[in-house]
Design a protein that fits this description.
D-tyrosyl-trna(Tyr) Deacylase, Chain: A, 6-stranded mixed beta sheet, two-stranded antiparallel sheet, 2 helices
Length: about 150
């Protein structure tokens, strides 16, 4: 699994001119899934997302985690994170898991993260044409790949 994590002051998802999800301070996670992703990848990413110390403490030092600040999470499926751009000018998405494989992994990740933070995780709609708006805080943006744990 690959995640682009953005620390945000707020974020939302709109589909067909209707807001389907909205958060305040927390993380916007763009999540890409490959067929080889396992429960181990999900569990590792949940721990990493919950415990990254990238929120400011009272001294304005990035020392607090999402759990510490009781932040919100918005997760958006993003198959294009696994695009290959090595050849030609049209990206190949062959590495991205097909919906039949990706949706259960995505939902499992959403469910596990919700349990870990003790509140509902907001989501976009898997496979939909979404308009994502965010106010990046910092900016702080990290790319996390569960296949690159070393």
């Amino acid at each position: 699994m690959k995640v682009v994590l953005q620390r945000v002051s707020k974020a939302n998802v709109v589909i067909n001119d209707q807001q389907v999800a909205s958060i305040k301070q927390g993380f916007l996670l763009l999540v890409g899934i490959v067929a080889e992703d396992t429960q181990e990848d999900i569990d590792w990413l949940v721990r990493k997302v919950c415990n990254l110390r990238i929120f400011n403490d009272a001294n304005h030092v990035m020392n607090n985690s999402l759990v510490d600040c009781e932040g919100d999470v918005l997760i958006v499926s993003q198959f294009t994170l696994h695009a290959s751009t090595k050849k030609g000018n049209r990206p190949s998405y062959i590495k991205a898991a097909k919906p039949a494989v990706a949706i259960p992994i995505y939902q499992n990740f959403v469910d596990r993260l919700s349990i870990a933070i003790g509140k509902k995780v907001q989501t976009g709609v898997f496979g939909a044409d979404m308009k994502v708006t965010l106010l990046n805080d910092g900016p702080v943006t990290l790319i996390i790949d569960s296949k690159d744990k070393s």
